[in-house]
Every structure is written in structure tokens, then in C-alpha cells.
Amino acid sequence: MGRQTKMRKNLNKIFFGIAVLAAGIIFLGSAFGFWEIGEMSGWWTVFIIVPAIGSMIASGIDLLNVAAVAVGVWLLLKCNPQWVPAERMNHFAIAIALVTVGFWLIFSTVKTKKLKKRLDDNSGPISQESKPTYTAVCSGGVYKNTTGNLLGAHCLAILGGLEVDLSEAQINDEITISVTAILGGVDIYLPENVRVECSDGASLLGGIDNKMPANGDLSQPLVHIKHFNVLGGTDVMTRVHKKSINGN
Would you say 89 and 73 are in contact if contact means Cβ atoms under 8 Å apart? Predict the structure, then answer.
């Protein structure tokens, strides 16, 4: 693991720590009678805003962390109508949407090119674990696994994105890959010969897209994708499919 990756993970921990510490101070002040939690409407939005800001600093600006900050601020103002009159909230919501889209248009192209280069250059961490776990919390990650006997995998993305390349791993039997994407996205690359089943899962304002080629050969190993998506998505594909999309 590189020094830069460690620094990013440390920053994420620091910002999550700040969010938890802030919540603790709020409850402690209430316990000693300095203030009432009921008077501080929307205090819980700190768990949305602070980690999202941490993601911006640690991993750069993208649509997810900008949207998270925007939604967090909007919810905070919604809970405190004395700050912004109710008749102006619609204008404020439109402004948040426009600013979010604007940031995405500005920064998405640069970030996408950098992420694509990392994957094409195989510069992400390479492991040979038989049953790996990959996580991205308020951050992004690109991983590659070349194990000779993949037994399954777990992928978790919360306010972040994962690209997991299993295209060179050997899948010898039926396996299950569990994926959770909450306000984030997960891209999984599998070998071309496997069969894929994505029926086991649930999505809320999100979904899963199985882009694997049809394979009716029952002698080939079956990969079950067990998914849970909330305001996020999961894509399952081959590296060949990815290259064809990018025109390579």
C-alpha cells in the first residue's frame, strides 16, 4: 500500500472521528444542561456533511461527495426554517442542484481519465486472496485479484466508488460475490467464461447492470452477485466490454 493511499485512509478516519466527536459533544452538552438537542434541529446532518467534506479532501471532488454535502446542507436548512424562509427553499434546492451538476461537469472528466488510466495500467493493488474484501468509504479504490482459486468476495462502497478487477482470477466452482453500494458505485470485472446470476438483491433509487455476455454453457462456473444498492449502483462486466466502450 502506497504512502498516498495511507494518507487518504487516515484523512477519512480523521473526518469520521470529527463527526463522531461533534455528536458526542452535542449529547454531552445536553446532558449538562448547556443546551437541548431538540433546539438544535438537524444536528444529525453532521454525519453527512463532515464525511463528504473529508472525501473531497482525501479523494478529490466528484458528483457523490458534492451531492452529499449539498443534500446535508439542504436537510440542515430544512430543519431550521428560521435560517432560510420557507418560500425560498425551492430556490435554494434548485441552486443546490445546479451547483452539484456544475461541479460534476467540471471535475468528472479529469477524474474519470485518471481512474481509467490506473485500471488500464494495472497500478491498483494486486492480491491473491481467495475470499477478499474491498471497501471504499468516502473514497475510491481500484483493486485487482489474480488468485488461482477465487471462493467469493465482499465489496462495500459508501459515499465512494470501487473498481474490482477479477478478470484474471480463476473461478473453479460456484461462488457468491456480495456487493453493497450506498451513495456510491461498484464496478466488477469478471472472466469471460463464467455465468452470472444477479437476481438475489434489492435496490432503492439504484440498481445493478449485468453487462456480461450470455453464457448457456452449464459446465462453466456460476457467479452469484448478491447486491444491495441505495442511491447507488453495481455494474458487472468483462474487461473486453469495458475496452469496447472506451474505444480501445
Answer: no
Phi/psi for 191 (5° steps) reads -60, 150
Joined grid coordinates for residue 154: 465482499
Burial 204-219 (b: 16+ CB within 10 A, else e): eebebeeebeeeeeee
Q: Give which of 183, 176, 128, 137 is closest to 154, Cα–Cα.
A: 176
CB atoms within 10 A of CB 169: 24
pLDDT tens for each residue of 27-69: 777 777 766 665 557 777 877 777 777 666 555 666 677 778 8
Phi and psi at residue 236, in whole multiples of 5°?
-120, 125
Q: Determine contact, residues 211/241, Cβ cutoff 8 Å.
A: yes
d(CA 129, CA 164): 13
Give phi and psi for 72, each to the nearest 5. -60, -45
pLDDT surpasses 50 at 119: no
d(CA 135, CA 124): 14
Go through the chain and tell me how many residues it has: 248
